[in-house]
Amino acid sequence: MTFPISTALNRPIRLAVLISGGGTTLDNFVTHIGQGKLDAEISLVIASRENCAGIEKSKSYGFSTEVIRRKDFETVKAFSEVLFDRCRENNIDLVVLGGFLSLLKIPKDFLGRVMNIHPSLIPAFCGEGYYGGRVHLAVFDRGAKVTGCTVHFADNKYDHGPIILQRTVPVYGCDTPESIAKKVFAQECIAYPEAIQLYAEGKIAIQEGRVWITDEADSA
Asked: What is the CATH number that goes with domain 13-110?
């Protein structure tokens, strides 16, 4: 699967944030935008469930908020077509998955324009069924000594696609799944906005399935 190279926008990047839960990733983006660390505007929030807490949170921020439920469609393709049509109508530059649990079929015009964050160091503890607390419990049960988070471009498989950034945390004997989750989320709050900002600045190139982070000096 071929992904395009990002180009510098020279304006706030227009984001669609896809949620299925409490909207903690949404909170993080709002914080970074407010602090001037992320040059972005959240133009659309789409929830996959009508009862997730993130919906009211999104509305409280004043964001355009919609619910598109996977169960209302017979196929992943039909579900995805409606979702990405809404993104096109809102002139979205980048779709970011914030705990979005539904599989997507990404159309050609959005390849390299959908990011996900996963709470482990892919390819460890990832794939279908590995999400939220299940990931941290698996890390704990396995006795892993290091874990972390991964920001990657999404494709049509769970937790797949070129890796953009990873951040690590140590796992100690005194840790619990809950304490692991807290440490990993702290790193997610750094990594995700950083990856989006790199994309907005046109500093991400993908060659043979691997992401290269470039800067103006590299391309001069």
From this structure: 3.40.50.170
